[in-house]
Amino acid sequence: MTHLAPMIHQSHDLLPVRPPETVSMRTRDGVRLDADLYRPDAAGSWPVLLLRVACGRRTALTSHYAHPRWYAARGYVVVVQDVRGCGTSDGRFRPFEAEREDGADAVAWAASLPGSSGGVATYGCGYAGMAQWLALAEAPPALRAVAPAFAGWDVFSDWAYEGGAFRLADAMGWALRAAAEAARRVEDGTGHRLLSDAARRLPIDDEIPSRPQALRDYARYSHYDDWLTNPVPGPAWAALSPKAMAAAMPAEVAVLQVGGWYDPRLAGTLDAHDLLAARGRAPVRLVVGPWTADGPAAAPGETPTLDTLHLSWFDRVLKGEGADRGGPVRLHDVETGRWHDLPAIPPAEAVLHLASDGLANRQGGRLGLELPDLAGLDVVVHDPRRPVPTVGGHAVPEAAGRPDRAAIDRRPDVATYGSLPLDEPLTLAGRVALDLWVEADAPSFDISAVLSVVRPDGRVLPLTQGHARVEPGDPTRPLTIAMRAVCATLAPGSALRLSLAGSCFPAYPVNPGTGAEPGETRRVDALPITLLIHSGPDRPSRLRLPAGPQGRG
């Protein structure tokens, strides 16, 4: 049974901190990596916390975490290092390509720094989180713990694609920022200005929305074309991905993962926890809270900072201080603000069936416990000139969260299916999936699925979502869409709503219907697509949830 998880607050005797020192190391292939070193100004030795960043060590210091001085004052040596080709470090930045070897070299080097006790832990979010996984796969002996946040597990499915669709807004925004930094390093002022401006306002209205002019002109600075033109898993992706290297990761290293309900990489975070918890001998813990990839989002209840979570974890696994409190999985309830402790992530096993009289995009269909006796067919027309926009959720980091999507659900190109209002509270905590019987009049099409809570006051607030791109020949009998996980306690009078559409732009490119790749598709090439959504005894479309509905369904 889930319960309110205690928040951890510990007091520390603060130590004076030396002025920061800039220190450098050489990788095994001779590349110089620069870092800033923070350590207590006192006699003794301390564990080392290593943060390796791709966004410049000076600007990255307080974006998600307290300043390194904060950790140093609490008895840690802190090293913040620019990865290869970033900040002031030498080399060329190519995402994830060198992080396994460079990370292991950095761990060994950090363990030998002045004031080090010889044990090293890593921390960091996003790219810095993936860099930790890759270093762990090299099994450096001094590494005692890792703490990846908002990192994911697989570069293909957590960073570049989702459900077969390119992560347009997320991937483009990061590529433009990285390219702007590469232009700055070679003093290309014009390129830096154009790329920086494009990153602030994504050029998704270009003739080729998925491959805008700025990225075509400055492709030499970016990995973007490599990702855009490689839409299927394979050896090139596996060479970059911790998921493919899991067998090499030592089970003796403690793992704390932090994920966010509005983080684009949450699905991979959950997959990594499931695998490592099943085989690990060291502590493995997962915390999922009301965070986006860029930090906290507005949410009910008390939300601990990443620093309090990390400090209590590092104190326990590196210093043997503090109690082991809470379960292996801790989830924030987006409706009540409470925290729930679980032994594992519950699977999607309970079922709600879709039913309709053919007007789900007009007056709504139904979600119910019983399989409907009659067949249902809903027809939804996707118009590429007016794609259904992305509203909240996880897929556009700059606009992530839980805005009211009631107006979007009233569009005629959105089919909705709702449950009856609940008679008593219902807690959903775990994975969600959708099995949808669907077909279209085009060789390729997209399905965007959003699960929301309909509050008694009429607001429609997203809980989770999923997206799938169907390519020519893909099976759709049924089409299974993974919809990430959820933790929410629905109040009496609330209801569930499933919303289905043929687009979710700019989170994912508008599907032209032809099967052409996004980087080759002009806006003028896209065609209208008619979607047929089936339900009933012969084609039982169904929503799978981590807990069965209570009260009326």
From TrEMBL:
Keyword Protease: no
Keyword check for Mitochondrion: no
Protein name: X-Pro dipeptidyl-peptidase
Assigned keywords, A-Z: Hydrolase
All residue ranges annotated as the Xaa-Pro dipeptidyl-peptidase C-terminal domain in the record: 311-544
Classification of source organism: Bacteria, Pseudomonadati, Pseudomonadota, Alphaproteobacteria, Rhodospirillales
Domain of life: Bacteria
Source organism of this protein record: Azospirillum thiophilum
One Pfam family recorded for the sequence: PepX_C
GO MF assignments: dipeptidyl-peptidase activity
InterPro entries on file: AB_hydrolase_fold, CocE/Ser_esterase, Galactose-bd-like_sf, Xaa-Pro-like_dom, Xaa-Pro_dipept_C
